[in-house]
Design a protein that fits this description.
This protein is mainly β. The chain contains 8 helices and 32 strands. The strands form 9 sheets. It has a 4-stranded antiparallel sheet, with no helix packed on it. The chain has a 4-stranded antiparallel sheet with strand order 3-4-5-6, with no helix packed on it. A 4-stranded antiparallel sheet has the order 7-8-11-12, with no helix packed on it. The longest helix is centred in the N-terminal third of the chain and has 16 residues. The protein is globular and about 70 Å long.
Length: 577
């Protein structure tokens, strides 16, 4: 694979001829009602599901808000300061919002209220809004898939208060995911008070669900459902007799957490469900003991068997805290991949969450703790029993993710060389041909948040390929730089077609979906996420630089140390995109 270095005069000598590629990118259907859209899973038969965020026109209920309260008045003063700093006159008052509602006032008022409610996310006295929805693609058109939301009694449409995690699709279009119960606005009288207060409460934090193409929804209730319990569904495989679904369920509440509940959640000062959610957040989601689980369902989606998959350690009598295991993927052979709590080899009091697979009643670790791996997950498995995921270890002073593949038959784990030593990389999927897709950090010299781009890796070939290097350099006119950058490679099927997420530049939109203009009336632009399909084509790979510049042979990240000096030049290709 030949790449041409960029000369200092690159901008003056740039060739305007279109360059060949080995993959063709097609943008997939997405929800018009949202700014960003992401592929989540695609079956071999072509069923596509995704999630979208940045939902336009989120409904805001102002009927219960005291606009004279110091909390919202202080937030408004801060917004006034912000407008002043950007030399813009504020376009709304709190009185406007109270009388007209936020969306009816203007986009600035709507954006302010969304920001205010977000800041009060852990305060049960204010409305709860969620900004992510699931969707499936039917006959080429994206359509929202409602999991647990219901029609609001306070405004038109759904409450838009639920979590939506839409995760996997089977060959016939049956899907799985998990979400939360919708919030309900209710009145609560604290002990010793004479006036009721408005509170927002819900029945459960997380519940798995199976959804058929005909619209049949089957919630998977956890074994332990006290205080709502927890369950999630993460993957599904169609079998000759029905389906295998894997995920996680709550199995109880540990001693220490039960003491917290007994001491704090008496229902006197706040609703019990609010207290439970506060404890759930304060314990980093470790209020419940949870275990990986495999469900067997028949063709009518009736559960015929529930099989707990275990835990990678044995709890001791004095362990009063929660232990967690989870199942994220399953193949047609019934082998399950995920993660579990594991005791540190050197300090039994230290618990690590590490990649594991579940087979024949055993929980099998894949990473060697002696190599300083402190965390990670196994996220996908093909039908040849090869698992992919990522581990976490300390590199150059920071925790970094590194992708791996593990062969169950040989019990061997390999960490391929990725973009560079301190690059974080994660694998998302593997097909039966041994091709792995994922994303990794590509900007070596950025000390802050690093840009991620999709990669393709073939087992047996020690070379990682940036997927963007397999795409055209220019649009069809041969002059305009190619408009997409693949940020995430999520799925690869057995045709070696890749599905993922790309970014592109479009006119900027506000929270109501209108085009944004600056103080001079000029249209502003922004980068958004769109779902894409990449199909293999007969073509060649070349760089986007001028033809007269020098060439070198790419050697992946195993290049000699001096090739690091060339990275700023090679990276310019990404910037110019």
């Amino acid at each position: 694979m030949k790449y041409k270095l960029l000369a200092a005069s690159i901008l003056a000598t740039m060739s305007t001829s279109a360059i060949s590629a080995t993959y063709q990118l097609t943008e997939l259907s997405s929800l018009d009602e949202a700014k960003h859209n992401y592929v989540k899973d695609v079956s071999e038969s072509g069923n596509i599901i995704g999630v979208a965020n940045g939902i336009y026109n989120l409904p805001i209920d102002v009927s219960y808000i005291d606009f004279g309260d110091n909390v919202i008045e202080s937030a408004y003063r801060e917004r006034e300061k912000y407008f002043k700093n950007i030399d813009k006159e504020i376009t709304f008052t709190l009185d406007d919002i109270e009388k007209n509602n936020a969306a009816a006032t203007n986009p600035d008022a709507h954006s302010f209220m969304l920001s205010f409610l977000s800041a009060q996310a852990n305060n049960s006295e204010y409305q709860k809004l969620a900004n992510i929805v699931g969707y499936h693609v039917l006959n080429g058109e994206a359509q929202e898939q409602v999991l647990f939301d219901v029609a609001s009694v306070d405004y038109d449409g759904l409450t838009r208060s639920v979590s939506n995690n839409y995760n996997a699709v089977a060959e016939d279009g049956v899907t799985v995911g998990w979400g939360s119960a919708p919030y309900e606005k209710t009145s609560f009288l604290p002990e010793g008070e004479s006036e009721e207060e408005t509170r927002f409460v819900r029945d459960f934090i997380s519940r798995g669900i199976v959804v058929s193409p005909s619209g049949l929804n089957v919630p998977l209730v956890p074994e332990y459902a006290e205080f709502g319990g927890l369950s999630s569904t993460n993957d599904i495989v169609k079998t000759n007799t029905g389906y295998i679904v894997v995920g996680q369920v709550s199995t109880g509440i540990p001693v220490d957490r039960q003491e917290n509940i007994d001491d704090n959640c008496d229902g006197e000062d706040e609703p019990v469900s609010v207290c439970i959610e506060n404890l759930y957040r304060s314990t980093s989601s470790r209020l419940f003991d949870t275990r990986a689980v495999k469900w067997t369902l028949d063709t009518n989606l009736n559960i015929t068997k529930t099989e707990p998959l275990g835990l990678g350690l044995t709890p001791e009598d004095d362990d009063g805290f929660a232990f967690i295991s989870n199942a994220l993927a399953v193949n047609s052979n019934g082998i399950v991949a995920g993660y579990s709590d594991i005791r540190d080899n050197n300090r039994s009091s230290t618990i690590r969450s590490l990649p594991v697979y579940y087979k024949d009643g055993n929980v099998v670790e894949m990473l060697n703790q002696e190599d300083d791996w402190t965390g990670g997950k196994a996220v996908a498995i093909n039908n040849n029993n090869t698992i992919v995921g990522y581990g976490i270890k300390r590199i150059d002073g920071s925790d970094r993710q590194k992708f791996f593949y593990h062969d169950v038959a040989s019990n061997s784990t390999v960490f391929p060389t990725d973009f560079f030593n301190s690059s974080s990389s994660v694998a998302n999927d593997i097909n039966d041909n041994g091709y792995i897709v994922g994303e990794g950090e590509t900007d070596l010299f950025n000390v802050g948040a690093r840009r991620r781009e999709g990669f393709l890796y073939k087992i047996g070939e020690d070379a990682i390929t940036n997927i963007n290097d397999l795409l055209p350099c220019y649009e069809a006119d041969g002059e305009t730089r190619y408009g997409y950058v693949v940020a995430e490679a999520k799925v690869i099927n057995n045709k070696n077609e890749i599905f993922g997420v790309a970014t592109k530049t479009v006119e900027k939109t506000d929270s109501l979906g209108g085009v944004v203009r600056d103080i001079n009336g000029e249209i502003e632009y922004e980068s958004i996420a769109v779902p894409v399909k990449l199909s293999p084509i007969n073509g060649t790979i070349d760089s986007c630089s001028a033809p007269e510049t020098e060439t070198y042979e790419r050697q992946s990240s195993s290049s000699p140390w001096y090739t690091l000096l060339l990275l700023p030049l090679v990276g310019l290709r990404r910037i110019l995109r």
